[in-house]
Amino acid sequence: MGNKKIWIINDQDVQYATEHVLQILHKGIRLKRNDNDEVSVICVGVNREGEFKKLFQYGADRVIFCEQREGYSISLYVKCIATMLKDKLPDVILFPASITGRQTAAMLSVRFNAGLTACCTDIKYDGDKERYVFIRPAMSESVLAKITCINEKLQMCTIKENIFESRFVTNEITFNMEYFSYTEKGLDKNIEVLERKALDLKERVDIKSAKIVFVVGRGMKHSMDLCKTVARQYGAVVVGTKAAVEEKMIQENRQIGQSGISISPDICVALGVSGATQHMVGIKGAQVIIAVNTDVNAPIFEYSDYVIVDKGENILAELEK
Ligand SMILES: Cc1cc2nc3c(=O)[nH]c(=O)nc-3n(C[C@H](O)[C@H](O)[C@H](O)COP(=O)(O)OP(=O)(O)OC[C@H]3O[C@@H](n4cnc5c(N)ncnc54)[C@H](O)[C@@H]3O)c2cc1C
């Protein structure tokens, strides 16, 4: 039973010590069985000493850094980390379940034939089997699956934000930096970044800390303008179901539920939402749920504090100031 190398892959190319990464870092530290196990954070991108310092303050034993000045490209990112992997052979790799993290984890797991568990809610180490055990809800949250990779040594998982807590460890740090060099050959470069554009600020809403949300479902397909107008009047953020995303009523980053985000607002007004379990897991933290649905038997009513059997449009018209 050798010493374990626990890796955390950063999903950013400038700001490395994000809250999400610090949360995963704290989990990585708790997976150490003794002082010889080592937790490393892997950073690919721009040299940022202040960010590295924060990673050490939050408990990283080592930062492995590969400088890439050309900006983010998934192919470069994956190839760079793959080269590091071959060289340094970690035992377990934890990724943020962000778009970049998920893409990178999927591509690397195929390349290395490694086990990959998506969206873990906990990780343990089984000393008898010398394997990590990845825990996550399955079958509509009715069971907790414990997943172990039995075929390959390398094991990976992705972790959503706010599953673990970050924890400041110390100001007395050692800058244990390891520099890694990777240069992509011109011909290998099959993706070119033409333009980098920041998201429209209007779209950067802080959904997680919203106090009032209007959740729209497919039933509101023809009433989105009215819904947005009324939401604005009440200072509410408009989010929705997977069906609402598929119908292009809202953007993907506003999807609530199992494959989206979880919210815990003070008031959640659900309009035209049927109440599928995959959706309800994302709003179960709401203080008060008010559901409006034309179907008296809509499952969402079972989870709601107030129910209104009516068209969503009628209720919005009543609410409009
Ligand atoms: C692996 C997996 C992951 C998933 N992840 C998610 C997830 O993260 N988030 C998510 O939301 N879903 C998720 N789903 C999909 C989920 O199972 C449901 O299909 C989805 O939530 C249904 O969305 P909906 O309620 O908007 O649509 P529908 O089920 O079509 O419901 C529409 C509702 O609107 C009502 N209605 C119709 N007209 C009106 C009106 N004028 N006024 C008021 N009510 C009206 C209807 O009675 C109905 O109840 C997932 C599914 C799977 C298999």
Automatic annotation (TrEMBL):
The keyword Translocase does not apply. Residues 184-211 form a coiled coil. Transmembrane segments: none annotated. Binds 1 FAD per dimer. It comes from the Bacteria. Residues 6-189 form the Electron transfer flavoprotein alpha/beta-subunit N-terminal domain. Its cofactor is FAD. Keywords: Coiled coil, FAD, Flavoprotein. GO terms for biological process: fatty acid beta-oxidation using acyl-CoA dehydrogenase. It holds the Pfam family ETF_alpha. One of its GO terms (molecular function) is flavin adenine dinucleotide binding. The keyword Zinc does not apply. Signal peptide: none annotated. FAD binds at residues 218, 255-259, 272-279, 293. Belongs to the ETF alpha-subunit/FixB family. This is Electron transfer flavoprotein subunit alpha/FixB family protein. It comes from Vallitalea guaymasensis.
